[in-house]
Backbone:
């Protein structure tokens, strides 16, 4: 299941619609890291509201993804972690490190606006 | 042991897509057994960890899910079995943060924390079997390694 990535202003929004295989997660990571450059985005939101499991592999991949996006000069917010999943993650001993999280997509956008001081768009490439 | 199998589902595990099938089947069976809310997520997550352990280390195996009774207790049993290389040092494998695969090293020790009973049996060259039980309305944890 490919995750659709929407471009909204200077941000990219990846809405996870259904359970993801390990391969899907790795593809999402690579696609986002690439598209942040293509669209010169300042921020990325990964909406995981509809996910029913975040296991150790998924959490590790999300952390790597956020680190890669940061190295590309943009911010990542994971939005919509459900309460049951939050509980399971704590039981498993998993955390997202310093990756930003938000209650839902709306809060995620507010957080990104603040972190990227509004706008969301990067400087235009000169001579482009 | 006075436990009695009522409903059983066996899921062959040989790829990352099978990990999802195993946890979805497990969630459905746990729901039938009476589990709800965060317990369903705990069961599904524990299945995900042991199924991934099969894919990473043994390539293929199976996850057997069963509704169980013991006295007036009801629950679900999860058995993950493979004929892979086996685990050389079980106590090392059960240490938080130890990983020989691509995970966080939290797979098996993490799964142990999500269930009430956890048993790991492994022989080098023979394979690995993980047996987990989760009881309805019970939150104690018992672990055995052989």
Residues:
């Amino acid at each position: 299941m490919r995750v659709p990535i929407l471009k909204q202003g200077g941000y990219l929004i990846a809405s996870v619609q259904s359970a993801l295989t390990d391969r899907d997660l790795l593809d999402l990571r690579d696609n986002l890291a690439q598209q942040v450059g293509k669209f010169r985005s300042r921020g990325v939101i990964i909406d995981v509201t509809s996910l029913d499991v975040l296991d150790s592999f998924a959490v590790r991949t999300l952390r790597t993804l956020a680190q890669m996006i940061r190295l590309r000069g943009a911010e990542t917010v994971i939005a919509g972690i459900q309460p049951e999943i939050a509980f399971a993650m704590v039981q498993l001993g998993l955390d997202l490190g310093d990756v930003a999280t938000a209650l839902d997509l709306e809060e995620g956008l507010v957080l990104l606006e603040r972190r990227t001081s509004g706008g969301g768009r990067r400087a235009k490439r000169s001579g482009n | 042991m006075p436990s009695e199998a009522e409903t059983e589902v066996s899921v062959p595990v040989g790829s990352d897509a099978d990990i999802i099938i195993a946890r979805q089947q497990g969630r459905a069976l746990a729901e039938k057994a009476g589990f709800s809310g965060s317990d369903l997520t705990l069961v599904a997550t524990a299945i995900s960890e042991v199924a991934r352990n099969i894919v990473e280390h043994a390539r293929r195996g199976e996850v057997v899910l069963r509704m169980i009774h013991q006295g007036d207790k009801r629950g679900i049993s999860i058995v993950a079995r493979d004929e892979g290389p086996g685990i050389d040092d079980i106590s090392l494998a059960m240490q938080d943060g130890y990983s020989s695969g691509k995970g966080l090293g939290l797979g098996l020790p993490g799964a142990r924390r999500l269930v009430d009973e956890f048993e790991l049996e492994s022989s080098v060259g023979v394979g690995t079997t993980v047996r987990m039980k989760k009881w309805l309305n019970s939150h104690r944890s018992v672990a055995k390694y052989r």
Strands of chain A lie at 5-8, 11-15, 43-47, 75-79, 100-102. Chain A touches chain B through 22 residues (CB under 8 Å). The longest strand of chain A covers residues 11-15.
